[in-house]
Amino acid sequence: MPSDVRSSALEKALSVLEAVSDQTQAVGLPDLAVRLRLPRQTVHRVLGQLEKLKLIIRDRSRERYSVGPRLSRLAFVTLRSLNQSAPVRLILQDLVDDIGETCNVGVLDDLDYVFLQLMECRWPLRLHQEVGTRIAAHTVSGGKLLLAYLA
Asked: Nearest-CA neighbor of 93 among 123, 74, 127, 117?
């Protein structure tokens, strides 16, 4: 999402993080500046700050940026956190109680299904998954459903 010149430092930093995260490969400063419609000097300063915080990493040989270890950790901790998902967990628990089977919510990431939330049934024999687990989408019902709607 493009930023304007009057946006706050935090908004600019988040815009840069989102732009870097949206790329399938490392991205350079000129591309980021054009995409965000921000001056190169501003993007360069924000990239430097984000790099110091290990939210992004810089490939010094090619001067390109990608997601850093701290941002990856933050993403996984957020996925595993239960404080944002209480309504979803209540709905999943109602479903599990009604049908007696494990229920989950997930998303496609390329051709993988990533579990965002799940509630297990009480069957003694069941496949145990954790939030953040990635599985080939064609091997689980939720993945098959999402794949069916791809172009």
From this structure: 117
Distances 111 to 61, 85, 104 between C-alpha atoms, Å: 30, 24, 17
Distances, alpha carbon 115 to alpha carbons 31, 103, 104, 111, 145, in Å: 32, 10, 7, 13, 14
DSSP string, 139-151: GSHHHHHHHHT--
Query: What are the residue boundaries of the structural domains of the chain, listed by start?
Result: 9-71, 81-148
Upper half-sphere CA count for residue 102 (Cβ side, 13 Å): 17
The residues facing 109 across adjacent strands are 112
The pTM of the full predicted model, rounded to 2 decimals, is 0.57
CATH superfamily of 81-148: GAF domain (3.30.450.40)
Question: Rounded distance, CA 27 to CA 58, Å?
Answer: 9
Q: Render pLDDT for 35-82 as a digit per residue (tens, 0 to 9).
A: 999 999 999 999 999 999 999 999 988 889 999 999 988 887 776 666
- Domain 9-71 falls under CATH 2.60.40.1120: no
Residue 57, strand partner residues: 66
